Amino acid sequence: MEVHVRIRRFDPDRAGGAYWADYAVDAEPGDTVLSVLNAVKWQHDGTLALRRSCNHGVCGSDALAINGRNRLACKTLLRDVGPRVTVAPIAGLRVVKDLIVDMRPFFAQYRAVKPYLIAPDAPPGRERLQSPEQRERYDDTTKCILCAACTTSCPSYWSNDRFIGPAAIVQAHRFLFDSRDRGAAERLGTLDAVTGVWRCRTVFNCTEACPRDIEVTRRIGEVKRAIVSGSID
Fold first, then answer.
1. Cβ atoms < 10 Å from Cβ of 181
2. Is 116 helix (H, G, I), strand (E, B) or coil?
3. What span, in angstroms and rounded, lies between the C-alpha atoms of 22 and 7?
4. Coil, helix or strand for 115?
5. All structural domains of the chain
6. Where do the H-state alpha helices sit in 94-183?
7. What residues contact residue 14 under an 8 Å CB cut-off, 6+ apart?
8. Most buried pick, 8, 43, 210, 227, via CB within 10 A?
9. What is the dihedral of CA 56, 58, 59, 65, to 10 degrees?
């Protein structure tokens, strides 16, 4: 079938900067949007700039606004979006060129929640043990691939890019509720701030956008309750 793809492009050296470009590509219903974008770049216009890597929904590098919704291009099939596809960069982050955005603010917010195990006690001889129930407590948030689809679908983030954002809160949740971790006080201090969890308005855009089906809004609510109660139990 013939797919008509409209791409929001941006060239910092071009007068006016942003513009729309239209292309026609031959594809099959089972093809992905990423394969269509590759066809545009390889067969129509080699100047198109986009990020891509694993092509299996693991690296998170190809998050884009596809037909108005944040998705991974490598996981989005044409049969699910139709023969007319509109592609734009994810919102809320500065566009560098075409579909590539500056991810540095996003990763700075990620680092702010100390996304690693904090366990100051001496390590045991073999491993830090957990029960299956303790592991299950934070299993959902271990799935995050840092694609930024959730954060850049958030209206609060669009209006205030100092908001730490859903992805960073998800990463904080992963360690806050890990029974082996001892860094809760440090993380909750960062999250209980004007740019922290309280800027979340429970819109659920983040949950809808997550390509890993993480219950993002629910996990943000659990972090809020931990702050209010002073307990992560």
1. 19
2. coil
3. 6
4. coil
5. 2-101 (3.10.20.30), 104-229 (1.10.1060.10)
6. 104-112, 132-136, 155-159, 166-176
7. none
8. 210
9. 80
Inter-residue contact 209 to 149 (CB < 8 Å): yes
Predicted confidence at residue 125, as pLDDT, reads 86
Q: How many CB atoms neighbour CB 205 within 10 A? A: 23
**pLDDT confidence of residue 121:** 87
Give the containing element (helix H, strand E) for 63.
Answer: strand 63-66
Walk along the chain (233 residues) in steps of 10 and give the mean pLDDT of each run: 97 88 97 98 97 95 98 98 97 97 98 95 88 97 98 97 96 97 94 96 97 98 94 77
DSSP per position, 81-94: H-SEEEEEPPTTS-
Task: Using the structure block, give the residue that is written with the tokens 């949740």.
Answer: 173
pLDDT at 122: 87
The H-or-E segment that residue 218 falls in is helix 216-229
